[in-house]
Amino acid sequence: MQLNVFSGNRGEIGEAHGRTHAALITHSLEVYDRLFRDFVGIGWDEARTAAERFLPMIERGFPAILDEMDGIARGAGLELGDIVTLNCRSEISLTQASGGCTAFSLNRDGRQWLAQNWDWRTDQLHNVVALELRPEDAPALVSVGEAGMVAKIGLNDRGIGVCLNAIRSRTCGEGLPIHVALRKILEAETFDRAVRVATQDRVCAPAHFLIAGGVGQATGFEVHPGLPGVLEPRGGTVTHTNHLYAETATCQVEDFPRPDSRPRLARIDRLLRDRLPLGEPIEAGALFEILADHEDAPLSICRHFNPDQSPEERMETLFAVVMDLTAGRLSLRHGKPCESDDVLEVHLPRDTRHSGEA
Q: Taking every annotated instance into account, which residue ranges of this chain make up the domain Peptidase C45 hydrolase (predicted)?
């Protein structure tokens, strides 16, 4: 996979993104048109109408990102409403559809790691892009996600990183859409500012954000329109799959996880304990091996085609990412981590001038 680097003001970055990935963005719209029909029973035009309710929330919480969305639309030859709908696809569809995803943070020997598999519909595999963005008014960042979307999983040059777990729930209220909130986190200059996106801006639909900083902080936030559930590290780790388990969240939100979510969480906890003993050095390759685990297949951490599931329910691992936030390094395997030997390595040197670390 190729890394695309875009810089300039918001509109310029968006237009370059849209122009470079126009074909992939158009294909993403087709994928989500099918998904909305499969899970929600609406077509693209109806989804665009549903997405309009999120515009005032974005205008209040992160207005600058609308300039970038408008640029993406302009570059791809689409309308702003199409790009807003694409970036609000979780809020429109996750009442019925949920992905997989297994994520963890690990603090060991002075290094802060973040890692996860992203599991989703196979028809989005070739719409995955890796972007390095250098806005004039925000930290440089790297995001791995879907073409046409403003962010998903990544890190910035202040040592802040974030991972995502989807949560299936019927809850949707006031706050930032999930992927817009992820981008705001990736523009945070400090860990505390990143945390404030989850705790003060709030997020209008449930998800889990695993936020970490290069100097050793990591906390999981089970976000939703209310006060998020908070998951502090235990033994230097935070782990999460696709169900809520912090009491602050579970007492406010009802979720509907797939049957494999709890077994995957137990499995990732065991693997981190058994395969990474204290005192031994850790490299990205060892974390990719954990993400390639197949116990309980086909409902394993590394997910493959499952013929026993209905076509619209099939989820497979589309990429695996390992981030060394202390070093400012992101490693990406596009496709299943057990099959892909081609690793994209991105190094984003830490800028400590504004982070309070200098």
A: 107-337
